[in-house]
From TrEMBL:
It is a peripheral membrane protein. SMART domains: B41, FERM_C. This is FERM domain-containing protein. Keywords: Cell membrane, Cell projection, Membrane. GO terms for cellular component: cell projection; plasma membrane. The keyword Cell membrane applies. Residues 22-311 form the FERM domain. The gene is nf2a. SUPFAM superfamilies: PH domain-like (SSF50729), Second domain of FERM (SSF47031), Ubiquitin-like (SSF54236). It is found in: Cell membrane; Cell projection. Transmembrane segments: none annotated. PROSITE patterns: FERM_1, FERM_2, FERM_3.
Length: 335
């Protein structure tokens, strides 16, 4: 039995080696796409193909994510796709998602497609309560989400009940109040009606401007232990590293902004954060899972790089993209 199974596995791997192509399904926040890829392709070859298909040029924010056991991983750009721990069944399913978040969406996001994908991803995280959102902000965000979908409010078209099938508020917010679905719709519609004069794209940007001020926006959390063995959470985001109590993801115990960190080193499951100020204590913590440690390192390096990039003059490519976006928007306004 064992030898038959081994022979079957060996045959499958032989078939893959002999095949010149393999199929991949890419799930974006809006739709799925399928591609035929060459077996020799590296992560970057596939990633570039997806970005071209989407017409996306702000590639530095995004990545291709997949699940490995009970954690997530991001496709490495410099390594062959098939040499990574991607799912083995074809089509291989990968998720095209924002890996890094902007500090200021309005200043940083240039293309409409970039903004739209962020909007959809952040909205999903808020509705699934991965980002905590207070009730008042939830209603306001819901009204901008409605505007982004339905366009300008028109009382003749948008009659009571038009939001009956929409998921617009986190369940936690709905459960806080003894309000019917009709009452919630009335509140959201009243806000929606005040947004007259905005385009759908502008509604999405207003949504992101509110969302980016929420405490859990853009933070990746990881369970860690300090030198004393105390359970804590590490938060990695656009601004730096944050240490939280396990039961409070909203307010960090302490923070290390990127511009105040001299060095982050990692050795044998132990991370060391060395602040620029030598009078400030070095912070050490342990994370026992290798895959999670690799992910923490990736997010630290990527977020730090973007933090520094934001504080330099825009590259020629970004300047050209911004000029092109301004021209397109001006044409749309005239049209």
């Amino acid at each position: 039995m064992a030898s038959a199974l081994a022979a079957k596995i060996g045959l499958n791997s032989l078939k893959r080696r002999q095949a010149k192509n393999f199929s991949v399904r890419i799930c974006t926040m809006e739709s799925d796409m399928e591609f035929s890829c060459e077996v020799k392709w590296k992560g970057k070859d596939l990633f570039d193909l997806v970005c071209r298909a989407l017409g996306l040029r702000e590639t530095w924010f995004f990545g291709l994510q997949y699940n490995v056991k009970d954690t997530v991983a991001w496709l490495k750009m410099e390594k062959r796709v098939l040499d990574q721990e991607v799912p083995k069944e074809e089509p291989i399913t990968l998720h095209f998602l924002a890996k890094f978040y902007p500090e200021n969406a309005e200043e940083e996001l240039v293309q409409d497609i970039t903004q739209h994908l962020y909007f959809l991803q952040v909205k999903k995280k808020i509705l699934e309560e991965e980002i905590h959102c207070p009730p008042e902000a939830s209603v306001l965000l819901a009204s901008y989400a409605v505007h982004a979908k339905y366009g300008e409010y028109d009382p003749i078209v948008h009659k009571p009940g038009f939001l009956a099938q929409e998921e617009l508020l986190p369940k936690r917010v709905i459960n806080l109040y003894q309000m019917t679905a009709e009452m919630w719709e009335e509140r959201i519609t009243a806000c929606y009606a005040e947004h007259r004069g905005r385009t759908r794209d502008e509604a999405e940007m207003e949504y992101l401007k509110i969302a980016q001020d929420l405490d859990m926006y853009g933070v990746n959390y990881f369970p860690i232990r300090n030198k004393k063995g105390t359970d804590l959470l590490l938060g990695v985001d656009a601004l730096g590293l944050h240490i939280y109590e396990p039961d409070n993801r909203l307010t960090p115990k302490c923070s290390f902004p990127w511009n105040e960190i001299r060095n982050i080193s990692y050795s044998d499951k132990e991370f060391t954060i060395k602040p620029l100020d030598k009078k400030t204590n070095v912070f050490k913590f342990n994370s026992s899972r290798l895959r999670v440690n690799k992910l923490i390192l990736q997010l630290c390096i990527g977020n730090h790089d973007l933090f520094m990039r934001r504080r330099r003059v825009d590259s020629l490519e970004v300047q050209q993209m911004k000029a092109q976006a301004r021209e397109e928007r001006a044409r749309n306004c005239r049209g």
